């Protein structure tokens, strides 16, 4: 939650204006390869993976990728995911329009779901000298099992440290 709130560790930029998405023009002179990775904490028993390993996208172009999660157990499991972007400097330009992160996802026994990530790389990426030689970005997600005794805490923003300790077990 700290990373989400303060854009730490290559987390994404959340200040997306609809008008920017509607009016931005893709920069076809530059192509960025976005790699996708997935992991689960040791206590999370889901299988979780990206449906594609990578896609190519021009800055200013919207793109859609999918991850899939499956609960192989005979009981429901609720999970929550965190994410990051590397290299970290690229995180400020990676904008999610729609995502499943930081939202609880419950999968019933043997249920499998596809989870979309709709995003774009800000066109300003191409004018930042620090990004000049960075043509590969990795978007990583990790799913954690949500603990039932922690669910009530989610409504209290002052308990962010407690929330993370609940999930990072």
Q: Which architecture does the CATH hierarchy give at level 2? A: Sandwich
| Alpha-beta classification | mainly beta
Major β-sheet annotation: 5 strands, mixed
Helix content: 10-25%
CATH homologous superfamily title: Ctag/Cox11
The separation of the N and C termini measures 15 Å
Helix-strand pattern, N to C?
HHEEEEEEEEEH
Uncertain stretches of 5 or more adjacent residues = 1-14, 151-156, 159-165
How many strand units? 9
Round the mean pLDDT to the nearest integer and report it: 82
Task: Look at the structure and give the CATH class.
Answer: Mainly Beta
CATH topology annotation: Ctag/Cox11 (Pfam 04442)
The gyration radius over C-alpha positions equals 17 Å
Query: Which sequence of strands runs across the widest sheet?
Result: 3-1-9-5-7
Relative strand content: 35-45%
Shape: elongated
Our count of domains comes out at 1
What does this structure look like?
By secondary structure, this protein is mainly β. The chain has a single domain (2-167), classed as Ctag/Cox11 (Pfam 04442) (Sandwich), CATH 2.60.370. The protein contains three helices and nine strands. It has helices at 2-6, 18-23, 160-167, and strands at 32-40, 47-50, 54-57, 62-70, 77-86, 94-98, 105-107, 112-121, 136-145. The strands form two sheets. A five-stranded mixed beta sheet has the order 3-1-9-5-7, with no helix packed on it.
Summed up:
The protein has 169 residues and is mainly beta. It is built from three helices and nine strands, in the order ααβββββββββα. It has a single domain (2-167), classed as Ctag/Cox11 (Pfam 04442) (Sandwich).
């Amino acid at each position: 939650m700290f990373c989400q709130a303060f854009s730490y560790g290559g987390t994404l930029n959340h200040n997306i204006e609809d008008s920017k998405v509607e009016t931005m023009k893709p920069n076809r002179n530059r192509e960025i390869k976005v790699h996708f990775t997935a992991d689960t904490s040791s206590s999370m028993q889901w299988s979780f993976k990206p449906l594609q390993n990578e896609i190519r996208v021009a800055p200013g172009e919207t793109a859609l990728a999918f991850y899939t999660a499956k609960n192989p157990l005979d009981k429901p499991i609720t999970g929550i995911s965190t994410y990051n972007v590397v290299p970290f400097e690229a995180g400020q330009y990676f904008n999610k329009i729609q995502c499943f992160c930081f939202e609880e996802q419950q999968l019933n026994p043997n249920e499998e779901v596809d989870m979309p990530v709709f995003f774009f790389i800000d066109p300003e990426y191409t004018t930042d000298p620090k990004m000049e030689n960075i043509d590969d970005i990795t978007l990583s997600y990790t799913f954690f099992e949500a603990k039932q005794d922690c669910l009530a805490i989610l409504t209290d923003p002052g308990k962010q440290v407690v929330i993370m300790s609940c999930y990072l077990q």
